[in-house]
Amino acid sequence: MRFTSIRANQFRNLEAKEIPVDRKQVFLVGPNGQGKTNLLEAIYTLCYGSSFRTPFMKELASHGEKNFKLTGMYSDEGLLTHCLELEYKDSKRTVLLDGREIKDRKELIYNIPCIVFSHDDISFVRGEPEERRRFFDQTMSMYNPLFFDDMRHYRSVLKQRNQAIKEERYSLLEIYDMQLAKYGLAIQQERTRAVFEFDQIFPGMYSEVSQTDREIHIQYNPSWSRCATEEEIFEHLANNRQRDLNLSTTTSGIHRDRFNVIDQNGLFSQSGSTGQLRLASLIFRAAQMAFFQKKTNRQPLLLVDDVLLELDFKKREMFLHLMESYCQVFFTFLPEEHYFSSLAGDDALVYDVKNGRFSLHEG
Fold first, then answer.
1. To the nearest whole percent, how much of the chain has pLDDT over 90?
2. Which CATH architecture has domain 1-113+298-363?
3. What is the pTM of this model?
4. Using CA atoms, how far apart are residues 143 and 268, in angstroms rounded to an integer?
């Protein structure tokens, strides 16, 4: 699978012009603020129906505009050509695949598997617990539609339960508790399995690239760690109901789970240097890529946004070795990062980016 062309209309600062991208490798070179990341964001938004930089679709429109449209032509694994369109108009998002409207985002996210590497990924290691929950939920949703459904149902029930607590409609809580137990247990069990498998990949990758013996692992700590059945979760919720009422929210559940990055000294976020945390965040994504391939036997599309500059030559070489299996990759580079030319294959596309315009790189 690979995109063959991208066109953006009124999206960020991108020029309303078709950009041919029918290569396995596409390099975008230019100073900061010229539109390199905006193109990656456009591709990601086409793949998943949302941005990796903001949850607010209206922020994606060009300055002074309220609407935008993205169009991507791509070929699938069978080399059939498809047209994917996303339009945001009058505060409504519409997605068309070959002219047919996709009404459920679930159908879209399994169409083109896409993984983005960005500076913000350091939050997976150093950030708040919800950042790691989001990462692992995203990782599992990429290959498991049932997990995606369970998460969707759980969030809906959790919202209703919290609203019932605030409005003092306590007679509904037993019903919501039964539903939370059902979906929450399924999610907890899947998270347990996934973290165990992910942790078979992540530590070795980090050791290989960092060239150290430091053992780094992922530790999953469920909120309902002492509950193994729906009945036990139901009982736990009942026993803790008064605390929930006092705090006006659901104080336990999979939305409170923690995923910790640890080494022999405890939390890696407290013992690792900034460079080590940054490297670990890159390995998170590389491991996500390998984990997805293991689960699906499919190669993802990669968006690599200015994350290689901080790596020395040896670490960069080792890291890129982990990323060799992909269907298509888009790299962004600053002009001073001249080593990008050594990464480009014979048929790679290299664009110079300036003020949202893309011109083929000479030389």
1. 83
2. 3-Layer(aba) Sandwich (3.40)
3. 0.93
4. 28
